[in-house]
Write a structure and sequence with these properties.
The complex is a heterodimer of chains A (about 120) and B (about 120). Chain A is mainly β and about 120 residues long. Chain A is built from no helices and 11 strands. Chain A is about 0% helix and about 50% strand. In chain A, the strands form 2 sheets. In chain A, strands 2, 4, 5, 6, 9, 10 and 11 form a 7-stranded mixed sheet that branches. Chain A has a 4-stranded antiparallel sheet with strand order 1-3-8-7, with no helix packed on it. In chain B, a hairpin with a 4-residue loop joins strand 8 and strand 9. With about 120 residues, chain B is mostly beta strands. The chains are: A mainly beta (about 120), B mainly beta (about 120).
Chain lengths: ~120, ~120
Amino acid sequence: DGGITQSPKYLFRKEGQNVTLSCEQNLNHDAMYWYRQDPGQGLRLIYYSQIVNDFQKGDIAEGYSVSREKKESFPLTVTSAQKNPTAFYLCASIQTTGVTNEKLFFGSGTQLSVL
Amino acid sequence: AQSVAQPEDQVNVAEGNPLTVKCTYSVSGNPYLFWYVQYPNRGLQFLLKYITGDNLVKGSYGFEAEFNKSQTSFHLKKPSALVSDSALYFCAVRRFGGGSYIPTFGRGTSLIVHP
C-alpha cells in the first residue's frame, strides 16, 4: 500500500533533550510538510520541502529543524529550544509537479509529550 | 494573505438530519479550497476540493460542498447525517507564494452526530 508512515506513534522528551520524528512516504511525492496540532488551534505549519535538499520555514519553525536528503524522507527534530513541544505532529505530502490531483496525504501522527 | 475561517468550534446534529459545517475564505485571485476529516488520533483524510467549475462539489462518504463567491464561503454539507460522521472537520486553502505550494488550514470544527 502506498502511503505515509510516521514513527514513533508516541514519544516522550526529557528536559533539554532533542528528539527526532520520522516521516517516510512511498508515493513519490515531491512536496512534504510538517504540521503541529494543538486542541482548538487547528494545524500550524512548521516546515515544508518542495524538492530534495531544499526546505522552507513555515509559520512556527522556531525550536524545530528538518532535513530532506532523500525524496521519500522528511524527519523533524524537536530541539531543546522548543519550550512547549507537547502536541500531535502530522506529516503530509502531495504531488506538485506534472499532473497533480491537489490531494494532500497524511501520516497517522506522532504524539509528543514532555516528561 | 490566503486564509480560511471556521466560525464554529462544534456542530451538533441528530442522526438523519442534514448537516452543515461552515467555512469562509479570504483569498486574492481564484481560490483552491478543500475539506478534510480527522478521526481521533489519526491523520487527516481528503474529502473534496473546489478548483474551478460547478459550484456544488461532491466528495467522499456522501459529503458535498457549495462554493459561493459572493459570500466567500465553502460550506460542507450532507443531506442525512450518520453517527459515524462524528469527527473533526478542517477547511483548507492552497496558499501561493514564491512558487511554493502551501496548504493552510482552519481551526477545525468538531461534528457530533447524536443517535
